[in-house]
Amino acid sequence: MSQAPTDAERYPTLSEEGRRLLQRMREHPAAPIFRNQSGNRLLAEEVTQLRAYEQQVMAARFEWQPGVPPPWLAGFLDAVHAQVPYFRARGRGTAFEALPTTDRGDLAADIARFVPDPVPLERMMNFRTTGTTGHPLVLPSHPVVAARYLAYHKRALARFGIGLQHGRGQMGVMLLGMQQRCFTYVSVTPTMDESGLAKINLHPNDWRDVDDRARYIDQMQPEVIAGDPISFATLLQLPLSHRPRVLLSVSMALSTGLRTALEARFGCPVLDLYSMNEAGPLAVHDDAYGGHVLLQPGMYVEVVDAAGRALPAGQEGEITLTGGFNFCLPLLRYRTGDRGALAMAGDVPMIVGLQGRRPVRYLTANGRWINNIDVSHALAPLPLSRYRVHQHADAGITLHLPVAEAGLADDAVARLQQALDGRAVQVQRLHAEDKLLQYTTDLPEGFTA
């Protein structure tokens, strides 16, 4: 685009009351410094379609069990091999279980080859992931795809008897970050009668007065607060009086201790969602069954070994995905890098023993802690295919780089040292060829308790 979009383009169906809500969220005396602008970009007919889609998702049942593929799989395979350049070039000619797996590295190498031919480019959106657990990615999406997330969040909430109520003139969802640099904005949700949506950063740098963080949340009174364990750990420290109806933890693994502290402080359920940018909300933890119950009936999940062979229920391996609701990026035997075992929670498949992405903090030379996402931002300008950052028990830092990228070491060290307030960084050869645990630490305080 040659120029920034207008509000009319960001919010095609915006009413006058919705405009006033946007203004109130942006211009409240305690509002943060919103550094970006975003919108739903949904057309009127798409809003109608999304309401119907949400009803379908809420009523849909899983048609598969571990080791027993769904009836829609054959048609899905026909479509992706005919329409997706990457899979068309690779060829089919084998049973599903014998198809080669794909991973984040394949997407990073040439994401355009994973977009189906029929997808129109005019309204496609691309967004960059932070790469906290592997290769940084630019992922294809669409306004309708982004809006579909809500249907699966509602399905997760409904499992625990929670139905969303906030609508026009109210803030429905507040998304939290806790990073030195964070994408922040306000928007409205047309399928919820233009309830408000705000992404805010709790880092002090994004506020005129640090005490405004609590004031703004208390004034906006969001029905749902979503964040990751690092932002929730900061939320616990704020003198809030507002009590949301539910907290949603996304992106990273939520510890039992932090969940218990959040529930005690805010007096509401805290749902631990297993979610990723490549696939959206995948599962929600259910204490009654002792695992993460799946949310997407249109996603077939396998657990595979190192060779890509599907493992039986109850056996731990790598979580692998086929299907999904992002029509710009259909997944086929996509290895997530996360581990667990498959089981059943009644008539719904679930993942037990999920070993997902745990947030990591790093202690800088000045004695402060920084988020692993801040480390990712520091190294993002460099064309690194993979790397690992480890903090030792003595607080020393080791940066692991592939041999082929040794020429980037000096620049990478300089950037990392700047983020770490000058802490010394040593470089070692990275031996791992597959997706690796990218951020690690030997300091117990480096993990959100």
Work out the number of β strands.
Answer: 20
Largest sheet: 12 strands, mixed
Structure classification: alpha/beta
The second-level CATH architecture of the largest domain is 3-Layer(aba) Sandwich
Q: Gap between N and C termini, in Å?
A: 44 Å
The CATH topology annotation of the largest domain reads as Rossmann fold
CATH class of the largest domain equals Alpha Beta
Detail the poorly predicted runs.
Answer: none
Instruction: Please bin the fraction of helical residues.
Output: 25-40%
Numbering strands along the chain, what is their spatial order in the largest sheet? 4-5-3-6-7-8-9-10-14-13-12-11
Strand % is: 15-25%
Radius of gyration: 22 Å
Tally of separate domains: 2
| Structure annotation, total helices | 12
Mean pLDDT: 91
Q: What general form does the structure show? A: globular
Would you identify the CATH H-level superfamily of the largest domain?
Answer: ANL, N-terminal domain
Please give a structural write-up.
This protein is of the alpha/beta class. It folds into two domains: 7-355, Rossmann fold (3-Layer(aba) Sandwich); 361-446, ANL, C-terminal domain (GMP Synthetase, Chain A, domain 3), CATH 3.30.300.30. The chain has helices at residues 7-10, 16-27, 44-59, 73-83, 85-90, 104-109, 143-159, 212-220, 229-235, 256-266, 372-379, 409-419, and strands at residues 125-128, 138-141, 171-177, 185-189, 195-201, 224-227, 246-249, 270-276, 280-286, 291-294, 299-304, 317-323, 331-345, 348-355, 361-363, 369-371, 388-391, 397-401, 425-429, 439-441. A twelve-stranded mixed β-sheet has the order 4-5-3-6-7-8-9-10-14-13-12-11, with helices on both faces. It has a four-stranded mixed β-sheet with strand order 19-18-17-20, covered by helices on one side. Residues 202-323 form the AMP-dependent synthetase/ligase domain. It comes from Stenotrophomonas capsici. This is AMP-binding protein.
